[in-house]
Design a protein that fits this description.
The chain is of the alpha/beta class and 307 residues long. It has a single domain, classed as Ribokinase (UDP-N-acetylmuramoyl-L-alanine:D-glutamate ligase). It is 36% helix and 25% strand. The protein is built from 11 helices and 13 strands. The chain has a 9-stranded mixed β-sheet, sandwiched between helices. Helix 7 packs across helix 8, helix 9 packs antiparallel against helix 10 and helix 10 packs across helix 11. The chain is globular. The structure holds alpha-D-ribofuranose. Alpha-D-ribofuranose binds next to strand 2, helix 1, strand 7 and helix 9.
Length: 307
């Protein structure tokens, strides 16, 4: 365990095309938006950028097309100090996401097409076994195929890493997959979809966490937006309050900021509750500005919020 260092993240990069809007359009309707941006996104990549900006040694496993969006990925990873462990394919396109942001409240709705990253296989993950097995923390989400996520967590578990699954977007998971998680980190919607409990607030999050613990997770963290985050394991259950972000500009990437910072804190040896607090601080900074990867905090910003 002592030679393990840094974080390996398996996931997807896509280019986020973001449209600010006063309301959702109806089917068949064309409406004028309030602003547009193009920038780096994809949950796994955002988490890698968050961890890299906070000073973690990060290896990111994924698959890209050889195109302009793929170059955008390489650029944002370079800036954040993330080491790419990437298969690049000439005949497939890097993916994209369509993000609608409520111009007044900052809430979002997202459609993601993973493009080349949809071709991530257990074989691609196995080809990166050495990078995964030397990491102290391994983390993935569910934007790439489930069998690849499973293989990634298995390799991490066999090597003695701390394993984190951010089950986003929610998918049906069997008990064997949940049993591979030292930490599973759904938001309220995902916790509800995974457990059948209607989750809204801390009490129902506790019920959902109980289900996930029974199904084999060692600890559950349900992120509750402005309610902070519920941490629950076999011995403890407590809510870590959110930090006040000031005005919420855009919520895209807040969950990724949380997960990237949480993984960074665990890799540095913080205890899980401290790590959740670190994650909540990162999420607060992220919602105070626009963009996904672009909104990830620096270490200095988190340190000043946490002191
Ligand atoms: O979590 C936010 C991310 O979800 C966006 O960057 C978008 O690309 C989708 O993957």
């Amino acid at each position: 365990m002592s030679q393990l260092s840094g974080i390996a993240i398996l996931g997807v990069f896509v280019a986020d095309t973001t449209y600010r809007t006063p309301r959702m359009p109806a089917w068949g309707e064309t409406m004028l938006g309030a602003g547009f941006t193009l920038g780096p996104g994809g949950k796994g990549s955002n988490q890698a950028v968050a961890a890299g900006r906070l000073g973690a040694e990060v290896r990111f496993v994924s698959r890209l097309g050889a195109d302009a969006f793929g170059e955008m990925a390489q650029g944002v990873w370079r800036e954040a100090g993330v080491t790419p462990c990437i298969e690049t394919v000439a005949d497939e396109a890097t993916g994209a996401a369509c993000i609608l942001v409520d111009d007044a409240r900052g809430e979002n709705a997202i459609i993601i097409c993973p493009g080349a990253a949809a071709g991530i296989t257990p074989g691609l993950v196995e080809a990166r076994s050495d990078d995964i097995a030397r990491s102290r923390v391994v983390m993935t989400q569910l934007e790439q195929p489930l069998d690849a996520a499973r293989r990634f967590l298995e390799i991490g578990r066999e090597a003695g890493a701390v394993t984190i699954l951010n089950p986003a977007p929610a998918a049906e998971l069997d008990d064997a997959m949940i049993g591979l998680c030292d930490y599973i980190t759904p938001n309220e919607t995902e916790a509800g979809m995974l457990t059948g409990v209607a989750v809204s607030g801390a009490e129902s999050a506790r019920e959902a966490a109980e289900v996930l613990l029974r199904r084999g997770a060692k600890a559950v963290i349900v992120t509750l937006g402005e309610g902070g985050a519920l941490y629950q394991d076999a011995e403890a259950s407590l809510v870590v309050p959110a930090f006040d972000p000031g005005r919420v500009v855009e919520t895209t990437g807040a969950g990724d900021a949380f997960n990237g910072a949480f993984a960074t804190a665990l890799a540095e040896g913080m205890d899980p509750i401290e790590a959740v607090r670190f994650g909540c601080a990162a999420a607060a900074v992220s919602v105070s500005r626009a963009g996904a990867a672009a909104s990830m905090p620096t270490r200095g910003e988190l340190d000043s919020l946490l002191t």
